[in-house]
């Protein structure tokens, strides 16, 4: 433990030296703290080491978006609502989408954003990013100087949500080289210095199409250790960062005169699957009445927020309900089902103790969640036997060998409910491995797959998830929080947006 502590301290000392030395030297007028006295330069830490500036590759676009360098045709606002950005409008006629760009959009070199360049970007992303491979096969056509069409060849209402994904950022492919170390894009900032695997500096895009950025620039330092970011923040060497740990958050809360801490539910979900092939309705309902998500939220110390369904309650497709925890009601259900409480405090029937196999894997705090659920179930007289697996997809998810199967995944990938629903509730889906079957739900999923109206999509999603809750097929526990700390006087770092790929923007400011 002592060696680890010393390693963190030495890393912080080395980082502090780099902050006050050459790393900020490219920003004119920096003083001994790394801050430019005559310029607004925000200093931020990131735990991911960017190796290339190509936003189309893997998840690199998340970070060029965080840096305020790249933009997409659409974006997700703080309420998880799809909103036009570079695009002015879009409409669908069957498989044919017509998209019109805003009149004044341009790249940082002053060149206009054209339909032809947008099409080339979408195809380029499809060629190198398997998650968007369909984009290389779509049929495109330029209509006029600001309008183009995409034929998806089959009805695909989630297209615009895809176009809000940061991997589909629009860049000037003619002037960005291979995009490994240089990038011409449309965002309010431009890359001024890039060290692969290290520090990245950005400066104001003086030709930004959507108004002048309030900051002169920013420096993003690579700090993989959470403790290093905390020390740097406390030493006055950072102005903001996200992914704040619960321990660090507790410290920042003690000094409200220095720091502002913003905690909101994000999009990564902790949930469990209830196996209908092994436990009847009474037992599954008793489990759901026993698991207390609010208490679990407290034990996980601010890193998660309890949830009713898989999506944020602020999203239009997050309007579902579930019964409040009630251990007394859970016991009554079991007793009505023929169970009696034995001398050890566990329910049994026909001489057999009600023993539940709770399978989990250790990442994403699921080990802690499993232990907490075990204790809660014990209070209701249910024995939970914990089984930890390294590879859930290759073990209990694949085999169905569980009574309760814990899992964690991003539920809201791009402001649309279909991805999570299709992965967990559709017949044959990988995480519909607990025997859930409902013909009405399958019919509604088919409608959701092709429904273009956003209000109707939200209604269908709410109805589908509500059925899963009512039939005690799943238990939705908590959404991981997006925790952002800023020095007082810093504002507008997308701290209220649940998506992790937003941070720096034209409205970001500091005193």
TrEMBL record:
Superkingdom, taxonomy of origin: Bacteria
InterPro entries according to UniProt: Peptide/Ni-bd, SBP_5, SBP_5_dom
Occurrences of domain Solute-binding protein family (ranges): 82-422
Record field: transmembrane: none
The keyword Signal belongs to this UniProt entry's keyword annotation: yes
UniProtKB keywords: Signal
Gene3D superfamilies: Dipeptide-binding Protein, Domain 3, Periplasmic binding protein-like II
Protein's name in the database: ABC transporter substrate-binding protein
């Amino acid at each position: 433990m002592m060696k680890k502590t010393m390693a963190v301290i030495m890393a912080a000392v080395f980082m502090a030296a780099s902050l006050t030395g050459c790393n900020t030297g490219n920003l004119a007028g920096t003083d001994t703290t790394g801050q430019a006295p005559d310029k607004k330069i925000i200093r931020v830490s990131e735990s991911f080491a960017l190796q290339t500036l190509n936003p189309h590759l893997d998840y690199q676009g998340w970070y060029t978006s965080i840096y305020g360098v790249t933009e997409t045709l659409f974006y997700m606002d703080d309420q998880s609502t799809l909103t036009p950005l570079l695009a002015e409008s879009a409409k669908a006629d069957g498989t044919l989408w017509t998209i019109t760009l805003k009149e004044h959009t341009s790249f940082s070199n002053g060149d206009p954003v054209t339909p032809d360049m947008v099409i080339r970007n979408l195809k380029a992303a499809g060629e190198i990013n398997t998650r968007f491979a369909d984009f290389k096969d779509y049929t495109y056509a330029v209509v006029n100087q600001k309008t183009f069409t995409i034929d998806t060849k089959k009805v695909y209402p989630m297209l615009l949500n895809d176009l809000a994904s940061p991997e589909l950022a629009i860049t000037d492919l003619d002037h960005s080289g291979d995009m490994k170390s240089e990038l011409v894009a449309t965002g309010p900032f431009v890359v001024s210095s890039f060290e692969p695997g290290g520090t990245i500096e950005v400066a104001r895009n003086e030709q930004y199409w959507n108004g002048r950025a309030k900051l002169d620039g920013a420096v993003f330092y690579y700090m993989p250790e959470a403790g290093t970011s905390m020390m740097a923040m406390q030493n006055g060497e950072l102005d903001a960062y996200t992914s704040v740990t619960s321990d660090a958050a507790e410290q920042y809360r003690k000094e409200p005169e220095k720091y502002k801490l913003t905690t909101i539910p994000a999009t990564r979900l902790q949930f469990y699957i209830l196996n209908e092939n092994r436990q009847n309705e009474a037992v599954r309902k008793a489990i759901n009445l026993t698991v207390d998500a609010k208490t679990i939220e407290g034990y996980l110390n601010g890193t998660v927020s309890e949830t009713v369904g898989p999506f944020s309650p602020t999203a239009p497709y997050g309007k579902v309900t579930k019964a409040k925890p009630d251990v007394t009601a859970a016991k009554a259900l079991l007793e009505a089902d023929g169970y009696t409480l034995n001398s050890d405090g566990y329910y049994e029937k026909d001489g057999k103790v009600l023993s539940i196999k709770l399978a989990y894997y250790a990442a994403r705090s699921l080990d802690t969640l499993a232990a907490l659920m075990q204790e809660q179930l014990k209070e209701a007289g249910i024995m939970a036997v914990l089984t930890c697996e390294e590879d859930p997809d290759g073990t209990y998810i694949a085999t169905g060998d569980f009574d309760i199967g814990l899992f964690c995944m991003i539920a809201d990938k791009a402001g649309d409910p279909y991805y999570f629903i299709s992965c967990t509730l559709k017949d044959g889906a990988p995480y519909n491995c607990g025997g859930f079957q409902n013909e009405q739900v399958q019919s509604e999923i088919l409608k959701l797959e092709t429904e273009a109206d956003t209000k109707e999509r939200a209604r269908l999603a709410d109805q589908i998830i509500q059925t899963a809750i009512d039939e005690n097929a799943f238990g939705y526990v908590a959404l991981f929080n997006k925790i952002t700390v800023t020095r007082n006087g810093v504002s507008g770092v997308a701290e209220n947006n649940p998506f992790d790929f937003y941070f720096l923007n034209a409205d970001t400011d500091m005193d």
